[in-house]
Amino acid sequence: VPSLPIDYFIVSFVDPISLISILVIYMALAALLYLSKSWFYIEHIKSVNASMELHNLRLQINPHFLLNSLNSIYGLTLNKSNEASAAVLQLGDLLKHMLYQKEITVDIDEEVKQIKNYVALQKLRIKDSSRIEVKIKQESFNGQIIPFLLLTFVENAFKHSDIQNNDFGYITIEIDQTDHFYFNVENTYTPGKDKSEKSGIGLNNAKRRLDLIYPDKHDLQINDSNNFAIKLKLSV
Length: 236
Hints:
Number of strands: 7
Strand order of the largest sheet: 2-4-5-7-6
Helix content: 40-55%
Radius of gyration: 29 Å
Strand content: 15-25%
Distance between the termini: 69 Å
Largest sheet: 5 strands, mixed
Oligomer: single chain
């Protein structure tokens, strides 16, 4: 454009096919950019919602666990047992762990340690604790797990077991790790008694947490046809 102080060059298209091709490419790239931004936004919202749900599930665990533990200690105090003070100390250790545990996952060894503490607490209130068997087949485990996940299943077994009223009642806990991490807990129960509660807030909570953290890496089986048995296979 000679009349302007700087040389400008105007490029025009006289080939409609080239113009349409460029327009189509531009529209396709713009659409892909828009869709990718929308996808990332949706994934971000899902991530935030999942984190909030996990937080809410964690908040449900502590009161539920605390209520059952206090019931155990209350039974000891009614019998004026000298072991009530020891039970309070056991509960204090567990609550301390809950208070300072903020991570989404913890070492499996830490979760196993808390199971041992909880079982020791429960043994204080059960007359014949020899029928409570904990089989931990390794000294240490590899990997991490959702905190209090296994403890939820153990708590459920003690809550609904008839070990106090059944001379043949028992609670068995097995923990092993080979190609996968395996956790089994089985307890006897009286048919018809509290059956509606066996799949209550604790188990539903654990199932949902497994779905959120290990969507395709776990196999959870719950069977109450005879005794009440929970089997968990987990890739960690």
